[in-house]
Amino acid sequence: MSLAITSEQEDLRLAVGRFLDARAPLARTRELMAQPIPHDGDIWRALATELGVHGIGVPEEHGGSGADVQTLAHVFEETGRVLLPGPLLATLGLAVPLLLASRDGEAQARFLPGIAAGETVATVGWLAPGAGWDAARGAATAVRRPGAGWTVDGRVALVLDGLAADLCLVVADAPGGPSVFAVDATGPGVDRRRVRALDPTRGLAEFVLDGAPCSLVGEEGAGRVLLAAARDQACVLLASEAVGAAQACLDAAVAYAKQREQFGRPIGSFQAVKHKCAEVLVEVEGARSCARYAAWACGAAPEEAPVVAGLAKAAAAEAFFRAAAENLQIHGGIGFTWEHDAHLFLKRAKACQVLFGDTRSFRLRLADQLGI
Q1: Which helix H or strand E contains 248, and what residues bound it?
Q2: What is the pTM of this model?
Q3: How far apart are CA 282 and CA 33, in angstroms?
Q4: CA-closest candidate to residue 23, choices 9, 5, 43
Q5: Residue 112 and residue 92: Cα distance in Å, rounded?
Q6: What's the pLDDT tens digit per position in 236-265?
Q7: Would you list the domain boundaries of the chain?
Q8: CATH of 7-120, one of 3.40.50.2300, 2.30.40.10, 1.10.540.10, 1.10.10.10
Q9: What pLDDT does 287 receive?
């Protein structure tokens, strides 16, 4: 086992970092979060065509590079550093692993090439309004009408980047049990509504489905198993994203502590500020180790993924929130202003803590898995 970054991964990470610094600085994030759909199609397509990001986890026969989750995790550290808005997590963290887990060759050939080329934005929906992330009841119901194929009805809540999506993979109750259905997000029978959220850089939507045409993905009744596999990878990539954002907070805090003077000396020379930065560093490095181990396990030890994915997400989310909060405190009064970027990281951190389940729920799930 090796968690060290390879030379190829480092080259990709640096290339993505340079691209984001030039094309997606925080000033651009502010512009996007003010729009109804926080998504830049030009940046999305360029990441796919110029850097091949969207094809990292896609097999070569479907237009991707067939690389592992470890490689993709390094990319998410960079996107987290700049709080990149857009459907990378929804598409590469949820939709792609669900399609791969389905072992449905027809569905993969239909959807994966468009995703790898940056032409298709995909997401996954499974939550009923008001339900928790682990709710057993379905948000939608699918029926098969003779001569007309499958249709789906229901309300699906908290769909990541649903307004930007071309494809939504909906987990719906079917006669054979919960199953996954591919729905054209822009097609008939689909009404999409924006959901206002604490984090303005992460788009959320509610889908109201009324006889929407759809197609079965994978085997009927396999919906919960496929969703679990997708959520594991999404948690790993979310953890990597959180680590990148936490590192950005720490870097900003340290830089400001060296610059800001009080009583004739930099505030970074005061022991209280030093301790804040040192404690955040310890948490961030611990979270980075958890996230990188979880990314390794997704490819090399998949039997461990259900355990370590949630653990990595919980550790990274807590470290991110600590880093964002301390960054804001070290910046003092200016950190609390709308014009400063510190509050954007704090809101993303708080949202990250509850996305896919809060820390307490992941710890309880881990205890159940370990038989404690």
Answers
A1: helix 223-259
A2: 0.95
A3: 31
A4: 43
A5: 10
A6: 999 999 999 999 999 999 999 999 878 889
A7: 7-120, 123-221, 224-370
A8: 1.10.540.10
A9: 97
